[in-house]
Amino acid sequence: MNSNVLGGRARCVMVLGTTSGAGKSWLATALCRWFARQGLRVAPFKAQNMSNNARVVAGGEIGSAQYFQALAARAEPDVRMNPLLLKPERDTHSQVVLMGQVSLELTALPWRGRSERVWPQIAQALDALRAENDVVVIEGAGSPAEINLMASDIVNLRVARHADARCLLVTDIDRGGAFAHLYGTWALMPAADRALIAGFVLNKFRGDASLLAPAPQQLQALTGVPTVATLPMWWQHGLPEEDGVFDDRSVAAGGEVTRTIAVVAYPRISNLDEFQPLKNIAGVRLRWARSPADVAGADWIILPGSKNTSGDLAWLRAQGLDRAVAAHAARGGAVLGICGGLQMLGEALIDPHGVDGNGPGLGLLPLVTVFAADKTVRHREVKFSSVAGPWAALSGLSVRGYEIHHGQTAEHTAMAAAGDRATAVMADDLAWQNSAGHVLGLYLHGLFEDPGALQALFGVEARTLDAVFDGLADHIDSHFEPGVLRSLIE
Question: Which residues contact 264 (CB under 8 A, 6 or more apart)?
Answer without folding.
Answer: 289, 290, 295, 301, 302, 303, 304, 316, 321, 325, 341
